[in-house]
Design a protein that fits this description.
heterodimer; A: mainly alpha; MetI-like fold; 12 helices; B: 321 residues; alpha/beta; Rossmann fold; eight-stranded mixed β-sheet; five-stranded antiparallel β-sheet; globular
């Protein structure tokens, strides 16, 4: 959409910031892990949820050299499960954000460009979908079409696109009043040409930054849905599911007797979310310098 | 002699907020612009000159109401409420917009601006349009580096030059410039106007320029039309208009311009232009006119005065000047 030099210039400029470096580092590691996860997992089959033959002898083994993160209540190697879970996490977060971004951007831009009844109707739709919590949608989908990755993604997209629609509506509203759009419109250029050429091009940067900073929240929400047992089925390599299994099978003992069951997936959720936020934060400041922090942490 | 623009009793109006009354921006304009001449339309704010310019350029908003006729090179583009700019807009008539800052897309390079215009008007591909763009940028005094730049990297004067180059690049026959100098510095104004004028002469293009700056209009244009309250009150060759104005409004306009180095008392125009919502059947300048008499209660027609091709809309044009 934009020139690659434009993006590389932004990334190069931000690489001077420590925050951005850490964020890019974490995100890169997570993405690379997601790609090569089956290769580095010591027990890939167990990672995908198969219960090994000798499960009875190695239930709830604490972290050791053989099982770096220990094993769960069914005797599966936790490290393999968590590492392969990275893949699910990235797929969930990226596909939710990507699909919502496309839907939201188109609807928001159309609401801003075509005025009158279309604008009012679409805005009411946007507000309607903003009002519904994703957990409720997930519950509904769980009861009607069962479990699976599509349930998680669908229930998040249904609520998430409205935010992008609102953001792109607000940005596009100011762009469509500018002279180059008005003149193009009055001289008879079709909306199909004006919208991608003039409107989307101008709001795309702001939306991308918003999308990157939302990756973390999307992951958190997806994990929450899975943790409640509404999304992915039990045994699926996903951090929320791993926590859900630990809590349902062990109850409060999961925290007290076998803390590795909750600590490792939890830490990975935390670190991944942090990594995505650290990438997006400097980009957002770049876009709007008024958001710059006055105080400084160690980075 | 070919007429480039011909307007016959052209009325353009807009509905007001409640959609009850029509506000007529131009209330019956008769206008003849010959091919190859530079024609200047002057007038105060709100007299309808920008509306007339956008009618010629073909960028009237869809909710505007039109009456009368407008011909561009003998093609009827406005026939009462019917408007048909096919084959005219962008191909015969080009526009230099008012604000260069907001008329260029900040996310497109200058090269892309040329490309999108030339692709739509002449079906050119990228390399052809680049060649044309380079050629026309040289003509307006910019070098090749500008092609790769984004609009924010250029100064206001350079942006205006780019817009002039884009307007000329599609080989239009009429260039409409809607206050091309209103958003640039005073010292650049004359420069830009001279540039437009010399290019227009070079490419033998008809220039229709809208301005409220009488002094600079007098320097570059062949013909001046003065507009007041939606009507053309005086029209004629520049030398006659500037030296021997035959309408009290034009005369008072010239008396209110400060001229550097000439110490004299400026005469401000008292009063306000009439309310355009009402139908005006009297001379629209009656309230502010120092020469008004009984006959001014009747609308004067556009009359030919003794000089050649000099028209005025005043009953007492002989007493003026």
């Amino acid at each position: 959409m934009l020139l690659p030099t434009y993006y590389s210039r932004i990334i190069y400029r931000n690489l001077k910031k420590t925050r951005f470096k850490i964020g890019v580092g974490i995100s890169t590691i997570i993405v690379v892990l997601a790609i090569i996860a089956p290769l580095i997992a010591p027990y890939p089959d167990e990672g995908y949820g198969y219960i090994p033959a000798d499960a009875g002898e190695r239930k709830l083994v604490p972290p050791s050299i053989e099982h770096i993160f220990g094993t769960d209540a069914l005797g599966r190697d936790l490290f393999s499960r968590v590492i392969i879970g990275t893949r699910t996490a990235v797929i969930q977060a990226v596909s939710v954000i990507f699909i919502s971004l496309i839907i939201g951007m188109l609807i928001g831009v159309c609401a801003a460009y075509f005025k009158g009844i279309i604008e009012i109707t679409l805005n009411y739709f946007i507000e309607l979908f903003m009002a519904i919590p994703s957990i409720v949608i997930a519950l509904f989908l769980r009861l009607t079409i069962g479990q699976g990755l599509h349930v998680v993604i669908a229930s998040l997209v249904i609520t998430w696109w409205a935010w992008y629609a609102r953001i792109s509506y607000v940005y596009a509203k100011s762009v469509v009043e500018l002279e180059y759009v008005v003149l193009a419109k009055l001289s008879g250029l079709s909306a199909l040409k004006i919208i991608p050429r003039h409107v989307i091009r101008n709001i795309f940067q702001a939306l991308t930054v918003q999308a990157i900073s939302d990756l973390g929240s999307a992951l958190l929400e997806a994990s929450a849905i899975n943790f409640m047992g509404l999304g992915l089925p039990s045994g699926f390599p996903e951090w929320g599911v791993i926590l859900y299994e630990a809590i349902t099978e062990r109850g409060i003992e999961a925290f007290l007797r076998s803390p590795w069951l909750v600590v490792f997936p939890g830490i990975l959720i935390l670190v991944t979310t942090l990594g995505f936020s650290l990438v997006a934060d400097p980009l957002r400041e770049d876009l709007d310098p008024r958001l710059r922090r006055r105080w400084k942490l160690w980075f | 002699m070919v007429l480039a623009i011909r307007a016959e009793n052209l009325k353009i109006g807009y509905l007001d907020e409640e959609e009850e009354q029509v506000v007529w921006a131009t209330r019956g304009v008769d206008l003849n612009v010959e091919e190859g001449e530079s024609f200047c339309l002057v007038g105060e704010s709100g007299c309808g000159k920008s509306t007339l310019a956008s009618a010629i350029a073909g960028i009237l908003p869809p909710h505007a109401l039109t009456m009368g006729k407008l011909y561009i090179f003998d093609q009827l583009v406005i026939d009462d409420s019917k408007r048909n700019y096919n084959g005219i807009r962008g191909k015969i008539v080009g526009l230099i917009p008012q604000n260069p800052g907001t008329s260029l897309n900040p996310f497109l390079t200058i090269e892309d601006h040329f490309y999108y215009v030339l692709k739509d008007s002449k079906n050119m591909n990228k390399s052809e349009s680049r060649k044309i763009a380079h050629e026309y940028l040289l003509k307006v005094g910019l070098n090749k580096d500008v092609l790769e730049k984004y609009p924010h990297e250029l100064s206001g004067g350079m942006q205006q030059r780019v817009l002039i180059a884009i307007a000329l690049a599609s080989n239009v026959k009429i260039v409409v410039a809607d206050e091309p100098t209103s958003s640039i510095d005073a010292n650049l104004r004359a420069q830009i106007l001279n540039l437009v004028n010399s290019l227009v002469k070079e490419f033998k293009v008809t220039l229709f320029i809208v301005t409220h700056d009488l002094a600079s209009a007098g320097k570059i244009c062949d013909k001046i039309a003065v507009m007041y309250a939606g009507r053309i009150v005086e029209m004629g060759p520049t030398s006659i208009i500037t030296n021997k104005p035959r309408h009290p409004y034009t005369k008072m306009l010239f008396e209110s311009i400060p001229i550097l180095g000439w110490k004299r008392a400026l005469n401000p125009l008292p009063g306000e232009p009439p309310n355009v919502i009402e139908e005006i059947t009297w001379c629209s300048f009656r309230e502010r006119c120092p020469l008004k008499i009984e006959i001014c209660n009747k609308e004067p027609p556009l009359m030919l005065t003794d000089e050649n091709l000099h028209f005025t809309r005043c009953w007492r044009f002989k007493e003026v000047s």
